């Protein structure tokens, strides 16, 4: 499935502010908020998932890097910082394969006694036409990847999350779920993911598990490779004057997963450079 950025739109009024500087990819956090924790990052090999894995490892977590691309996940694990007795692992995981999900979690359970953090990042979009031109195959594929994928993962993870006394789930939705900018199947899936995350938060609260979502705007990832103008062509859409970096989203995930957010559950946190303040502008949707 070829991935494209869901926010590749034109026509908004240019931003009038100077660009806000991007954060460092490798932070130097203090204190170590995830010391001793086990963090499962689904979609950890590239982009936002890779930045999330690095951020959580830099803050002391043992990271399980799960990805469809096991070779890339293994390479990612080799590059992660190891704090204290952190024990990182790579696991092959196809979130669209129910049997494969169950097998991956059996492997995780054999090595780790529990999961403290589940960050579900895996997802994607494809090129397609408008609603009248988009067939069932595209709809079903994007709903399966972006909605049912997280559902399968969470369902398999809950027994291990219930063994933690600080468990947190963070899903990655999108600003497409919050404002009309096209990409109907992707937007519908990400909207469904928000509803799932919020209902999940209510359902698992009695177990002491929190569930929140992050809704990124345009983020500079590999889907922009080879695209004319790159991600920066969309910088004028954003009041802060730049597109997002994977580290921007990873920082939000780390906050929501940390004990600093211990009384926060069932929320969606936009990480969008101010896009939702003004909407996507004329010509969108």
Automatic annotation (TrEMBL):
InterPro entries: NAD(P)-bd_dom_sf, Sc_DH/Rdtase_CS, SDR_fam
Entry keyword annotation includes Methyltransferase: no
Pfam families noted in UniProt: adh_short_C2
UniProt entry keywords in alphabetical sequence: Oxidoreductase
Biased composition (Pro residues): 20-29
Cross-referenced CDD domains: SDR_c
Region span, Disordered: 1-29
PANTHER family: 3-OXOACYL-[ACYL-CARRIER-PROTEIN] REDUCTASE (PTHR42760:SF133), SHORT-CHAIN DEHYDROGENASES/REDUCTASES FAMILY MEMBER (PTHR42760)
Family: Belongs to the short-chain dehydrogenases/reductases (SDR) family.
Protein's name according to its UniProt entry: SDR family oxidoreductase
């Amino acid at each position: 499935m070829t991935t494209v950025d869901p926010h590749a739109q034109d026509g908004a009024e240019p931003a009038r502010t100077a660009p806000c500087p991007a954060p460092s990819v490798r932070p130097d956090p203090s204190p170590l908020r995830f010391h001793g924790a086990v963090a499962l990052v689904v979609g950890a090999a590239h982009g936002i998932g890779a930045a999330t894995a690095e951020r959580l490892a830099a803050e002391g977590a043992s990271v399980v890097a799960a990805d469809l691309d096991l070779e890339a996940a293994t390479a990612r694990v080799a590059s992660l910082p190891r704090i204290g007795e952190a024990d990182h692992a790579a696991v092959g995981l196809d979130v669209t394969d129910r049997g494969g999900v169950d097998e991956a979690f059996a492997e995780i359970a054999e090595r780790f006694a529990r999961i403290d953090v589940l960050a579900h990042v895996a997802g994607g979009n494809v090129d397609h036409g408008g609603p009248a031109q988009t067939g069932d195959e595209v709809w079903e594929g994007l709903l399966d990847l972006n909605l049912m994928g997280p559902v399968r993962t969470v369902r398999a993870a809950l027994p291990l999350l219930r063994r933690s006394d600080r468990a947190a789930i963070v899903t990655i939705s999108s600003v497409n779920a919050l404002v009309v900018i096209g990409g109907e199947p992707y937007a519908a899936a990400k909207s469904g993911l928000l509803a799932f995350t919020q209902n999940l938060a209510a359902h698992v609260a009695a177990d002491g598990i929190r569930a929140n979502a992050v809704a990124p705007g345009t983020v500079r990832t590999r889907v922009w490779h080879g695209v004319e103008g790159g991600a920066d062509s969309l910088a004028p859409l954003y009041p802060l004057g730049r597109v997002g970096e994977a580290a921007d989203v990873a920082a939000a995930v780390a906050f929501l997963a940390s004990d600093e957010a211990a009384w926060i559950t069932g929320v969606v946190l936009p990480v969008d450079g101010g896009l939702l303040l003004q909407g996507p502008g004329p010509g969108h949707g």
